Amino acid sequence: MLDISGDGDARLICADLGPVGSDLTKIRVYKAGDQISEHNMIDPPCGVVGFYTENGEPRSSVVAVGAGDSVYIFKNMRPYFKYCLPHIEAHPKEREIWHRCGLDEELNVLTLADDLELLLKELGATVLSSRTLKFLSMDSNLRLSFAEQYRRVPLVKANALTAIATIRRDSWNDPASSCLILGTEGGEILVLDPRAFSVMDKHQLEWPPVAFASYGLWTGDGRIMVIGRDGRIGTIRRGSPVKLWETYTCIKFLILLIFFINFFSISRYGRMGQEERTIAMVTVGGGLCMKILKRTADFNVNNPMSNSSSYNTPKFSIPKKTRLFVDQTIRERAEAKKIHNTFQQGFLRLRLQIARQASERLTENQVSGPNPITLEANVLGLGPNYMIRVLVTNISDGSPHTELYILCRPEDTDVNPRTIDLPLLPSAIPIPLMISASLKNQISGKVKILLCKKSNPKPLAITTVILPAAEEEFEV
Length: 476
Known about the structure:
The protein has helices at residues 92-103, 109-123, 130-137, 143-150, 304-311, 323-334, 336-364; strands at residues 12-16, 26-31, 34-40, 45-52, 61-67, 70-75, 78-84, 88-89, 156-157, 161-168, 178-184, 188-192, 199-204, 209-215, 223-228, 233-237, 243-244, 264-272, 275-283, 288-292, 373-380, 385-394, 404-411, 413-416, 419-421, 431-439, 445-453, 456-467. Helix 1 (92-103) packs antiparallel against helix 2 (109-123). A 4-stranded antiparallel β-sheet has the order 4-5-6-7, with no helix packed on it. A 4-stranded antiparallel β-sheet has the order 10-11-12-13, with no helix packed on it. A 4-stranded antiparallel β-sheet has the order 14-15-16-17, with no helix packed on it. It has 7 helices and 28 strands. Helix content is 19%, strand content 38%. Among the domains are: 12-87 and 159-247, 7 Propeller (Methylamine Dehydrogenase, Chain H); 88-155, no CATH class; 373-467, Immunoglobulin-like, CATH 2.60.40. The relative contact order is 0.09. Strand 14 (209-215) and strand 15 (223-228) form a beta hairpin. The protein is of the alpha+beta class. Residues 373-471 form the Bardet-Biedl syndrome 1 protein GAE domain.
């Protein structure tokens, strides 16, 4: 929510990923619940934030949209600036192969393909660059023109944004300038200057961040809360390393309860139009709902009225047994065998129909092409408690895949979690996942990891890891 034009009315700015499987990604701007403009995006955005670049200047508001490896800055909802993430150094062996290819006077595509295939088997798809993965996934007739075009271009690995947020820089007076916070798939956290959009501070994590929460002033005692994809939480302060939270307590207060018919996927609280306290929510189906809080509402947890209302909740009134309920009970007792047989017949018909539909789906997917997603798994630890590190990489050059999830099928092992929903998979960017596994007995265990899609009953990729039996402890 941001006053993008400086007229005193705050607008709601949100990202629309479009239908599943399409590239119709747009940024939509709403005023008082009505859409006033929309803007097309090249890549699916990971987040949209609004902030001010100058202190005390309402017209210095800008909108930042993180998508792919770039941050697009809009001023008055017109393109203003584009910031690109720094590239990652490619693997030395991969650089050497492309360097030799660029020095040759006559290009030998077969030799280049063989070298890169061997490197793919040795290192895996998670280490290679998008150029190599695209070259290996292309048809053999198209590889010559592709290699001729890029063999003398310096080889780098692309980075990808995972989270975006803001933090106030040096003023509490509204409007105040804010620094831009960027999180990357490589575990980097970049803090950008609001005027020059250059890197002010840089922090390195061992895991990719997916969400930020900030408070305070960045030039003072401000802190940035970081949430990782595997559930880890840490704090960052300027000039200090990242501090992980090992244990923390949670204090619960019921402030406000709102009931909805549909589930909502995201919510935002802030100023909308002339109202200071507005909640905007987007449902799973794509609907937009706005709630304006009363200006006289008191959210103080020490308010006696709010405390008394939580304890004086009326009980549910249970109705008495009706004549219809009694008659139905007598009928079920008299015709129990007939009712049971009717239920079993309907249940068997349902199972037969599901089996037929599953067989048809599996038959349709027999002619599918090569899998554009790789799945790698490594076991960490000495037992009996292990960590399984899974790397998922999209080696295709198309649009990011959606509706993907990881399913674990253990044998003699307890795993947590059993299912993991995957985010959008950009090209050539490995997505790391951590799964904890514990052996049930003193024998080795096995975990089968399946990469599945919600609209496809057949797994896209399967890998199996063996958990060795832990040695028995003995006293010396």
